[in-house]
Amino acid sequence: MLPEQAHGKLLIFTAPSGAGKTTIVRHLLQSFDGLAFSVSATTRPARPGEVHGRDYYFLSKEEFMGRVAAGDFVEYEEVYPGRLYGTLHSELHRNWARGNAVVFDIEVKGATNIKAHYPEGSLAVFVAPPSREILFQRLRDRSTEDADSLRVRIARAGEELGYRDRFDRVLVNDDLPTALAEAERITREFLASQSVGHPRSDPGYHPPAGA
Ligand SMILES: Nc1nc2c(ncn2[C@@H]2O[C@H](COP(=O)(O)OP(=O)(O)O)[C@@H](O)[C@H]2O)c(=O)[nH]1
Ligand SMILES: Nc1ncnc2c1ncn2[C@@H]1O[C@H](COP(=O)(O)OP(=O)(O)O)[C@@H](O)[C@H]1O
């Protein structure tokens, strides 16, 4: 068990939509014991094949706002108009209590906020596409979005590319096997590194005597 108010490790993958972070995170979850996914809550509808509680907690706007009011989120963002996404405190503590490092698939602002809240024990990796054109092509080829949703994602993805140098690492996802091998290397090193920290803005935490 972790000491009260202490926290475990956080491995954050962030990128513009379509860069490949979901593909990379899924691969890592299959490849490593001791990693657990931070299942976010969202108000967007499930895509075919997505499972409630595994890919996301799919909530109505009312349910989501109720949980905001209850203080259940570490962070949340309206990523697309009317589409809320957020990280639940309960999700992190549930996974840390089991001794797992938590892995995130999250957009750039959420990643920045998580990293600021948990500066110790966290590593943020920006997944970069080989080019803007390839990024947009991947989004179109994935065929998960209707025309409007695709347009919104492409516009936002263009902006998010500008966050590239604000994180701890950049992982270029050009050839997929090469990117997966690099992601494995980063993860192996991270899991072997020093572990527990304390959240920066947690008023309840007092360091143990002699710490
Ligand atoms: N801030 C924040 N963003 C999230 C969270 N969960 C997912 N996202 C991001 O929201 C964006 C939209 O996710 P999604 O609808 O699954 O679309 P996709 O990126 O096109 O696969 C992605 O950049 C996700 O990484 C969260 O808990 N908080
Ligand atoms: N290196 C790659 N080469 C070609 N296609 C890729 C590569 N990585 C991911 N893809 C494909 O690009 C699309 C977007 O990837 P995804 O993992 O959904 O991105 P994100 O989660 O960042 O939005 C998916 O259809 C995925 O299969």
From TrEMBL:
It catalyses: GMP + ATP = GDP + ADP. It is found in: Cytoplasm. Its main location: cytoplasm. InterPro entries: GK/Ca_channel_bsu, Guanylate_kin-like_dom, Guanylate_kinase, Guanylate_kinase_CS, P-loop_NTPase. Pfam families: Guanylate_kin (PF00625). It comes from the Bacteria. GO terms for cellular component: cytosol. Its EC number is 2.7.4.8. One of its GO terms (molecular function) is ATP binding. Residues 8-188 form the Guanylate kinase-like domain. Residues 191-211 are annotated as: Disordered. ATP binds at A15, P16, S17, G18, A19, G20, K21, T22. Essential for recycling GMP and indirectly, cGMP. NCBIfam families: guanyl_kin. This is Guanylate kinase. It comes from Neolewinella aquimaris. The gene is gmk.
